Amino acid sequence: MSLVKIKTNPEDLIFTFRLDDVRFSGFCSKAGRDSTGKCLECAAGWFGSNCDGLCNRNCLLDTLDGSNYGNLCNRSTGICLLGCKGQWYGNTCDMRCSSACDNGQDPGTGIIDKSCERNSGKCLYGCLRGYYGDNCLDRCSEGCKNELVADIGLIKRCNIETGECRNGCEPGWCGVRCDDKCGEHCRITFDTYYQKDIRKCECNNTKKCSFGCDSGWYGNNCECTQNGLNCDAKGCDKVTRRCIDCSDGFYGNECNNNCPSHCQSGKCKRDSGNCFSCFDGWYGSRCNCKGHCDLSQGPLGCSANGLCHDCELGWYGTDCLFRCKTSCGDWGCMRDTGICNKCADGFYGGDCSIKCPANCDVSGCRQNDGVCNQCKQGFFGDMCTDICPVHCDNSGCLKNSGFCIACNEGWTGNKCECLGNCSTEGCNIATGICLRCQSGLYGDHCNRNCPLHCSRGECRRYDGKCHSCDTGWFGELCDCKGHCKDETCDINGICSECKEGWYLEKCVTPCPTHCNASGCNRFDGFCRGCLPGWYGSKCECSGHCSTFGCDTTTGNCSACDNGWFGSKCVDKCPVNCLGIQCRRVDGFCSACELGWFGNECEHKCPENCLETMCNRNNGFCKTCKNGWFGYRCDQRCRGNCDVQGCDKITGLCLTCVTGWYGSDCNSQCPPHCDIQGCLKESGHCINCKNGWFGEQCKCSGWCDKTGCDSNGRCHVCKTGWFGNNCTRQCSDTCMASCQRVMGTCLGCQQGWYGDECKLRCPTNCQENTCDQMSGHCSKCESGWYGPRCKCIGYCSNGCDIGTGVCFNCSNGYHGETCLEKCPTNCDETGCSRGDGMCKSCVSGWYGNRCDCTGHCGPSRCNSEGQCYICKPGWHGTQCVTKCPKNCDSNGCKKGDGTCYICKSGWYGNKCRCSGHCKQNDNCDSSGICSDCANGWFGTSCTQKCHENCNVSSCARKTGFCEKCKLGWYGSNCSTSCNHNCDRSICEKNTGRCEHCRIGWFGKNCNKNCPSNCEELRCRRLNGTCLYCKSGWTGAQCQCRGQCADTGCDDTTGRCFNCMDGLYGTNCDIKCANHCQTCKRIDGICSKCETGRYGVNCELHCSAYCHDKVCEKTTGRCRACVVGRYGDFCNETCSEMCLNSSCDRLSGKCFSCIPGKYGDFCDNFCGDYCLNRTCSQSSGFCHACESGTYGETCNTTCSINCLTRDCLRNGTCAHGCRNGWQGRECVSRSTQLDEGSFRMLWLILGAVGALCLFMFTCAIILLLRRKHKNENQKEVPLTTNTPRSNLGTVMHSKDHNEPANNLTALLGGVAKPEDKYIEE
Q1: How far apart are CA 634 and CA 625, in angstroms?
Q2: How far is CA 1164 from CA 519, 784, 1158, in A?
Q3: CB 628 within 8 A of CB 645
Q4: Per DSSP, which regions of 1041-1151 are E strands?
Q5: 1131: Cβ–Cβ under 8 A, 6 or more apart, which residues?
Q6: φ, ψ (nearest 5 deg) of residue 19
Q7: Which of 240, 435, 459, 891 is the most buried (most CB within 10 A)?
Q8: Does pLDDT of 1271 surpass 70?
């Protein structure tokens, strides 16, 4: 596939991509593309949905797929993932750090550059000298005084954060940053000290020109173009040429209007002419009223002679000079009498002087009689003196009745007096226990739900068991969906175990027809056992068929089960086939079990095969055990091979025992190798013994690769070693190696010097480097001097090299080391080196250290230079700090600079703010407040918030209230809440009531609660009553009596149906005892309580009825307890029934105990049934004991079966003994194999020898006839015709004596004590 190389930028890497990347558009990583050709991932350096956007070259480099490197960025946004290269910042690293950022070294990479913070661009290592601010974008003002900096010269220095000049201002400049220049029209004067023309001014709020104005200019600041304007000391604005502020007594744009005559000090606001404050006895914004007049109707509010038209809210009297009582609250009082218009919350009475009862809530009480509008939580009654019932929850109780609004968990009833969910019959007052539970609940406290599938949701109160189940559900708790064993199941209704004969999850499917009595598997329905003659997973075939079954016509299996072959799968596979699997046609094994080989896996693998694994066809081992080799692993490895042995084919060692090497491990390791020996291939030592070195450990030192001579001496030492034998190590501070003889370093590491580089360079050497021989510094760190950089401080003409002490200090410094600055106000002659006292002061400063300011008051300063009193306009300990510029002519306090009085239009302790700011001086440099004080808004915080704003706070831009006072809503809180809102509280934006007043409901509280609700209280959303008045029921209390869930007629209130246990026209009469439901007209019982029956439920159901449930009229049990049957469950099941369980009607056992069968389990299973178990219906054994077969296992397997085991039809399970054949091994075999022929010749030889022996014995008998009685009798040999071809036998009294082969050949009658010989 073609490749393309792309070079993104001259300094970037070259990227390589497949040509199809270009053809499909976009540059993909190794992950490739999806079916549409779109990249799954972008290659490093690219982004975008099509991977066709190039990441910014300033993103850090890395790789995504291990091959191509690139500038990594986010695929969607292009934002750099790993950060930016040095000098760049921003999400995509497209902005350069300020050129004024100082250099610094990255601790991770060691790179030195101008780095800045990734998001903000803030310089990480500070600013270059002469710059300030986070991003170092601001230059120190040109008005800052110059500072002498070593190695640089004169520069302007300022605080790196604030820009405040470090050494004060040049003449003609003002402000902490020296950026406020004196007016350009101030008269120029020649300064003899600075030797130049300067425009000087006073650096205070007036900036008054020190020597007057240029011709044609006026005012203190020389910015006015007219003379005689009514400006204050600040003069005119540079742009408009109008007064910055008016002088006292004037206001207006041109300062040509007189302030009202009753303004205090004659001062008023420039824009409106309103007074800042009035002379005593005068009120109003213009101080023209003689009382607290209502000014809301107009700015005057009073007549020409000062009498109020109306009083301001909260004042009364003819002149509105008397304040209303505090108990009138915000409602005010009558002007003539002072009587409250309305009492404040919490007071009542004619003069609102009486406090409402203590337990009234915040809505207070009625003004005329003090009855609480609402009670505090936990109280009720007119005066809220009664305590709510103890089990009401936190929402309390109804004010009038004391009924709980809601109960604590577990309690019910009007007053939460019942412990549990009681029916309408209530509970025992003394104990709180329910008389009856609500429908669907049970338990002592009626707090547990009946099982979900109980019929009609009803269950027994004491244990929660269902009376009956919904259709399709079973069990005591109706939680089972099928025929579960013991009627138990999980929470989903799934049986934990099925009853016998059923399967699947829900136990609703019967087992296959031909399964035997042991049933089938729960999950797949496979039979646990088949009826005789049937096979397969579901017993559908007459052979050992697999799960694919068989042909229903021929009975031939589609496939055989493991271990069987043949068309009907009735022949067993050889025993050593792997997994007992063989070819279906001829029974050849598909593969052998471990350790066997051959077609039928009849041969054992050689014993030295590893894990007895060998080739199936020839028996060759796959791998040998350690120590053996050869195809059959029958040859031993050579003696010096270690435990890993040798190559299986060649016999060559894989590894050698320690001390030997070579392909056959017959060579010894060099003598000076340590105990680990040497490498097998080369014989090189792994490690040497102490004092020996080199690959063969024959060198007596650390030699380099040229080795050593025959005496062990190195030709050349290895780097880092020296000495005659290269056994001494060079100093660890040598740069590389050292001279062989003396060990002198050929170079030192940084920071060290001397022959062996053991001496440290002087402390102040630049970059910690010095001359190796002398230790003299190459260069010194800034501020240090001399060969060893021992000279410190600002010296003017050098220092003593030994001590570092300057001969003379540079101008402006003093002290032994010339590191201490002279006092700030010393003039150019400096100060004394010893004590730092100024030789003379700059103009306006006094004292030994020139620290007594020229702005002291008449009493000047003390001996420490501190002023006793400052001149007006100055403050601070030394009176060198100007008062805030907006203080009026009275100045400020010496200690903290707080203005005595602010100029018109300025506010705060230091008159910095042009409006009513929060926290006094919290405003910016232009006077704009950061936040407005409560009750004010607007850009300058000079507009008042609406009177209905809560806590008088509102949005600064719009004046919209943040919160409203009680009873108001809207952006300006100018609209009153709906009168149906509880306590007049509504949502600020929509006016929607937070809660409705009693008697109202609905989204807007505009609907009446139903008339029969107790205290007219109902739920807001749907209007349903919390409680009903006596005699009424239903969600809206529209029903008369105890109606069922079907409700009642909305017009008449008559119930459609009564609640269980009640009858009558109004459903208010109780049914008979033990009657659960009765007929509405006559009260005749229609359903009894559990355990009862009869016309009036007066009779008890049988104790043996399941759950004591029986039919109402007859008393017949619906079901019996275990072990009982019959209509009334008064008959006992047979004790032979398994678990004493039998059929309800007939008493027949469902299952029998082991060893029994029959309807009533009164018959015994056959003696040879395996585990004495058999079919309950037929008595046929499920399986036979070893050696027997047949339906009842009463027939013995053929004696010629190889293992005496046979199948249920008598077929020998593992084949016949030698010499026998047929299904039951009862026919003799007609062929003799080679072994039999060999045996025959042996037998014939034995017979010949026996004849010779008998002949000899006959002669001996003749000779010893006289001793006949003393001789032992010979046991006679008998020969009979074999019976039933069962085999050949030999008789012997000693059963341990070997059988005689001749007798065995001739045959004999089989007897119990006979031994059988295989032929």
Answers
A1: 10
A2: 21, 117, 9
A3: yes
A4: 1062-1063, 1069-1070, 1075-1078, 1085-1088, 1092-1093, 1099-1100, 1124-1125, 1131-1132
A5: 1124, 1125, 1147
A6: -65, -30
A7: 459
A8: no
